[in-house]
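Re: [help] complex structure
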Amino acid sequence: MSLTFLHTADWQLGRPYASVEDSSKQARLQQERIACLARIANLVKESKASFVLVAGDLLDSPSPTMATVSAACSAIGKMDVPVIAIPGNHDHGGPGGPWEQDFLLRECRELAPNFQILTTLEPLILDDVVLLPAPLLRRHENSDPTTWIRRAFDDDTIPADRPRIVLAHGSVQGFSSDDDSSNDAPNQIDLLRLPESEIDYIALGDWHGTKEITPKAWYAGTPEIDRFPKGENNQPGKVLEVTVNRGGTPKVTVHRTTGLSWHQLTFHFAEEADLDRLQQEFTQLVGTGSDGALLQLELDGALSISASLALQELLDTWRARLLRLKLRNQTSLAPSEEEIHNLTGRATDPLISRVARQLLHESQGDSEDAAIARIALQELYRSGSQEPQ
Amino acid sequence: MRLLSLQLRNYRLHRDVKITFDSQRTLIGGRNETGKSTLVEAAHCALFLSHRRGGQDQKSMVSNHHPGTPEVELEFECGDTRYHLKKCFGGASKGSAKLRSDRHEEWTNNDAEDKLAELLGLDGPVSPKHVSSQWAHLWIRQGHSGSDPSGEASTQKDALLARLQEQGGAVVMQSDRDSQVATAFAEQNSKQFTNSDKPRAGSDLGQAESRLTSAADALEAAKDTADRLEEAVKLSRQSQQTLREADASIHKLEQDQRENDKKLGEVEALQHEEKERKREHAEAKAKHGQLNEADKKIRSLENTIQKLSENLDPKQTQLEKMRGEHRNAEKHASEAVKQLNAASDTLRQIRLNHELAQRHVDQFRCQQRLANLDKARKQVTTTRSLLTPLKARLAALPQLDSKGLEKLRTLDARRSNARAALDAMATGIEWTQGKGPVRIDGRKLASKQVEILSEESELIIGEIHIVIRPGGGANLDEARGTLAIAESELQASLTTLGLADLDAARANVEMHQAINSEISTLSNTLETLNPKSLDEDWEAHHTEQIGLTATIKRLAAQIPSHPAAETADDAGKALAAMTSTLKEAVSQEDQAKGQQQAAQEAREDFRKRISQAEEKLRKEEGRLHDHRASYKAQVELHGEIESRLTKLSQTGQTRDQANQQLKKIRQQLETLQADQLSALRVSLTRSLKAKQQLKSEADRNLASAKSTLTSDGTSDPYNDLATAEAILTRETESYNAIKRHAFAIKRLADLFRSEQQELADQFTAPLAEKITGYLKILFGPDAAAKVSLNADGFEGLELARRQGNFKFDSLSGGTREQLAAAVRLAIAELLAADHDGCLPLVFDDAFTNSDPERIRLLQRMLDRAANRGLQIIILSCTPSDYDTLGASEIVLQPPNSHTNAVIATPN
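Output below.
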């Protein structure tokens, strides 16, 4: 008998997006994570999934606000199938975690009676499936939370007639949500020591991109992208539709669920017309930038003063339109011959000429004084002195 | 422009005074209050103050001594034209002005004022409030010589700049755009930074700095909150761990305690049984002991009774024997008493006889003594009868003893000495030859008759009267007085004694001594006899005699046949015989006493020994009796020997059985280690209590942690922390960007300022050079001046010397007025170009702080200025200080209010 369910993780509801300065954009980003749950609800209906498994980090914080809790419960309650989750490192199940907060328990009862959080190391035997949870009971768990599962099949307490699904949150060999995936890192899961034949699927969380580790072990990734992807293999913004049966190989289908578009653009300025080229590339990639897009922009190369000033205006515009412009501007100022002439060759404005010459001299090099001199040069240029004589 | 002459009428203290100026150097001297400064002021008013000016300005001109409207007439030349200016300061209605040129041109009142302003290079007549500032850089009034002239020169800034531009033609001037841009950056910079280059509050940089601080504070607060939650989590986990461990410990402890309590129950039961067995053992042991003791006692009593019975018989035999010996001793004692009584009787009789014999002897001795006493008493009577007449004779003699005789002899000797002295002073007169008569004191002196004169006498021989004063007069009288006293005293003594003379006295003393000697002899005899003692002795023997007679009579009555002695010898012999007899009787009686005492002691000894033996025997019989009674009672109580042995055997068995059981119980107790069980129980109880407390504490901590961890849901502390960190990062970046931008603006402002300064320095160089030219005269070839130009005018006047640069305000008063004078001269030189190459400079007591040497040098400096076309006018109360200037000198005299005008012209 096969069974279909949705595997998702790392919803991280209530994520603050603190690096986004504008509060309305922050709210938009936060709301999008809730809106994503509606898309998952639709997917439940479409796939006729029996239940939804959330492999940890449903909440972004151990101390979510009441608004976050209510919004989360409301969205979960609309999924119409059981939603079963384990605590992850963001919303661990130990003291100080969110799952014993009175308000959350109350909201779950009232808004999401279909929700169940598994915080104990014991199997949950349902009519058609056995769930083997490996909840994190603290933010950093130094021992493998799946250890208990290795011996869970030593006796006959677990029925043999239905699929067995492990729920775990953490890093497996070679994959982690953090850069540090060494053996000393916390929340390590050793998949190799789990009795593979006894298990039909391992629903993993923590890695925000969708990733197949083994045919039976998958990271679902976050359903709503929350950071600029690291590399092309990183495929966030997905939910997995999984069909399993006891003793068989699971069938996994990937569904895109993300609502916002996260883009990356790297550009090199080589000549004066490159500013227009940048604008074209931006349009091709992002459009106007005002439709819920985020951009990680890396710039380098040299710019004249006028181009630099124009770039600043352009960046200001994009910064306003985009939900977030993450800029790494490594361009350098390279005044054109004309600009230099206009600044330093002003016979009728001897002071401006002398000051410009001094600033040009000072702007050479990588020192802080040189950086200040470059800005001063731009300001002098901007002051109107660039007008030809 | 050059001043030619000045005339004042009715102007303050001046009624009418006129002075004529030298074209180059004029020195106006005069003591204080001669009106020097008034001249300068009047000239200034003529040039710049409207003739219609009233009010205080006009009133201050009016003279208190000279009626009439104040008038000032000033002659001057501009270019090659001479002008005569006359102003009457009569207020708005009466004031007038007239200006004439030597070209017959004439202007009156306002026209005159307008023309005058034109000649002075002004845009028009000067408004009253700006009058005082006109030519302030050229005309130095009293007390203003030490002020920085660059400020005063600012009123002439435009003119100066034009001159400097002319002279420094090579210097580039900043453009209007330069100025606008520089000003814009300066303004932007001043909005960001204070004068001390600190970010200004409210500026972009200040706000960024403030936001950065706030972000850092917010992060700290968020960290604190998150840390508190983490601490609570930690506490919660620790408390849960503690609770788990405590529960496990308590469970184990309670189990241990139950087991321990079970063993303790066994111990208690065993201890109870031990107690019972112990009691049984003790009772059996005591009963056995009692029986054993009773048996031993009975057996002992039997032995004792037997021994006592055996010892009693010989003692009774011994007692009977002692009683027989006692009776014999009684008999001996009775006989000894009889013998003693007989000896005592014999002795008593002999004692009576001996007493009688003794009394007889005493009686004879007493009689003999009485006879001797009677004889002595008669001798006393005889002596006394001889002594009485002798005492009567002695009493009849004058009471003169040898001492009184010696006194008389002394008085006589004194008298004889007085006589001899008188005789020695007397003068002897003898009529040895011639005719007479010779008379002394009327008495006739016979021829050859020696007449001794012992007192003043008159000697008459014929008609010759001679007064003779023996001894000189006075001494003779004294000797005579002494003699009279001596004679009188002697005679008085003799008379008192009833004696005729000294011989009679001697005889009386001899008689006195003879009678006394005889009385003494008799008295000694009488004393030797001692009549009183004789009487007393006689009385005593007489009494004894009476007593002896009575005693002898009494004794004789007790002795029927006593021998009677006839003589004393007989009596003595009888006494001696009786004494011997008595001695022997006493010896016999003493012997009888000894025998009687020995017999008595022997009898007493027997009596005591018998009594002691009887007592001892009685006690032993009593003991025997007691033992027999006790034996009987014990046997009655404990039975005969067979019965006792049976009982002893039974109680012994009971005791041994109880002892065996006891040992067994104690072995069991030892195995159970009862003491350690109790200690363990205490320990377990204590541990349980401690664990319970630990658990309670953990419960409390858990509750506390839970309370802390319970979220009110209004905020998310962890996300707040992440947000605070992001904000801090963002604000740091923002601050750095704003700061960099602000510093860029600052750099621009600094660069423009610096460039402007450099340009200004180049621009003001001609002025500085001119000043330096004057300063070198004063301070030597190394001296130089620095002056800057800014938007408001000139500033930063400094004196550069070998020792360094000195700002104007830091210089001494003297140096300031010298440097100021140099600056004024240089400015005047520059400005003079607008006034046909000449301007008048007035120094009114301007060098009061300068020493004579500097004043000497100043004259060279002023001379240089005059040579360069300036008109130098010096006003001084000590004109001799400026002798080397070579100026035309005008000396003002104190004005006489009643005299007419003073016309002063240069020498």
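Chain B touches chain A through 51 residues (CB under 8 Å).
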